[in-house]
Amino acid sequence: MYLLGFDVGSSSVKACLVEAGSGKIIAQDFFPKVEMQIIAEKPGWAEQNPESWWANLKLASESVLQKSGVAAEDIRAIGISWQMHGLVLIDKNKKVLRPAIIWCDSRAVPYGEKAFETIGKEKVLSHLLNSPGNFTASKLAWVKANEPAIYEQIDKLMLPGDYIAMKLTDEVSVTVEGLSEGIFWDFKNHCLSEDILQYFGFDRSLIPPIQPTFGIQGLVSAEAAKELGLKEGTPVCYRAGDQPNNALSLNVFNPGEIASTAGTSGVVYGVLGQVNYDPLSRVNTFAHVNHTEEQTRLGVLLCINGTGILNSWMKRNIVSAGISYNDMNRLASQSPVGSRGISIIPFGNGAERILENKEVGCSIHGINFNIHNQSDILRAAQEGIVFSFQYGMEIMKEMGMNIQVIRAGNANMFLSSIFRQTLASISGATIELYDTDGAAGAAKGAGIGAGIYKDNQEAFASLEKLAIINPEESDGPYQEAYERWKQYLRR
Question: Do the Cβ atoms of 269 and 258 come closer than 8 Å?
């Protein structure tokens, strides 16, 4: 008996087959093998074609089935994780009307800010727990104002994972978790936000029917089964945005538990057991995967757009062709803590929530042509990313979150010993690394939704801890470098 998970990111689409009984990963793969294209026709814009997600999902699904030799009829449930906050629009024939406006697109910020002011900050925060910012609702407002011919054709709006669920099942639906990350959900009244719908002039019919995060959300259609090599009627039993799903994959379900990722963007995600929010909306609060009206489970999400994307920019533009990320880490390790005085502000991937939606760009400070070299710049990039995490975690602590242990998958920036040790030492938190990822988490989420596992503890009993990174006893050099970094940021 097997479980299949898909993770639809902005860089690639991953698939993972998990053996339900042992919890072990049987096969996994991702496509494309180079980073997926992000269309940026103007500064601050970021779009992708949903059809490319589906095309790469087909390749990933075909690969894991071929590698594993698992028969389609032995797959009992499917789970989906997706890049958060995106906007997918379809007409009555379920045809995509325009490229998806994805998470790091900042064009809608003015629309969200005006809504925040007009509806009233206190009312918005107490009901929605966030300002509309550049989230899905504001992106739809941009389409309405700037592309009226497209807007008139819209039958339903979806988030990226809802699109994948539609392609799998031929049914259109959303979840409360998805609506909350789109800033459509009223947490005080436990329903769609009338304030958002009325202010932006959105018809309620644009919102698809709501499905639970866990449970049968639809069955694989005959057409999808043929395309993917799956069995018709296989249930889709779980879906969630990538950060709530990453927390799930690390068995982070309860108040005080913390998860982190550091891919293209970087995230620290903690669970709250009571309704709370940052009054400046610099971090965001959404429904966690196990949130219900009866049981408050909210995910406080600190997101930094400019993290791993800075490291990949360094790979493309600073080091020689053929140099791997491991090679870059070895080069960076030749520079001491503090990068001999270089500081890098990493915010070169759109507006940043922790900076109150300001778009300050990436900048490098303190270079001396007589003493600095490539190693110093590479280390400063990683330290700058970590310092942006710490800057955001200080906001989370103001909300009452106690960050003592950070759980993370052994992937992306967490593969770097410099990144891990700097984060542990500057935050004072112990880092625990696990052998899991979003696609594996989505597979196990599907197992919970299908009733194969009785609860999350059974689902993640086999979760393997790979390493523990403790803070260094003397954090002086880290603190000195962080204070210098903050001075440059304030300028």
Answer: yes
